[in-house]
């Protein structure tokens, strides 16, 4: 909502995400990047990275051989890569416990297909197509944050 609100306040001035970061850097001075749409986008990109790593892990066939329909292995991998380093001890423990509430892989794939019954191979192919389109965009956002020195490493 914060990102959208900033954009809506002046669509010409905030035409791109980079424009938003540049203007907020100038506007907020030393408080930047710990404020506004810059901070919101930072957490959004991290969440998106978590989802992309999760989907990539599933599509790569990574799984618990004893429980192949569970996605705990995939979620833990995604968490380790995308979010864990930004979370304190308590949030790390909460996440580890929360993986037991995740849906089965078959239910997740069905939800991604909007409830339609589709062969797993077809769903995995669609995930591959999605990842091939979205991953470069997310990589570009991460690169932009690095170049602008906007990435924060504090723990939530």
From TrEMBL:
Functional description taken from the UniProt entry: Accelerates the intermembrane transfer of various glycolipids. Catalyzes the transfer of various glycosphingolipids between membranes but does not catalyze the transfer of phospholipids. May be involved in the intracellular translocation of glucosylceramides.
One of the record's GO molecular function terms: ceramide 1-phosphate binding
Family in the record: Belongs to the GLTP family.
Major place of residence: cytoplasm
Organism, scientific name: Heliornis fulica
Record's protein name: GLTP protein
Domain annotation Glycolipid transfer protein: ranges: 1-113
Cellular localization per UniProt: Cytoplasm
Pfam annotation, one family: GLTP
GO cellular component: cytosol; membrane
Keyword annotations from UniProtKB, A to Z: Cytoplasm, Lipid transport, Repeat, Transport
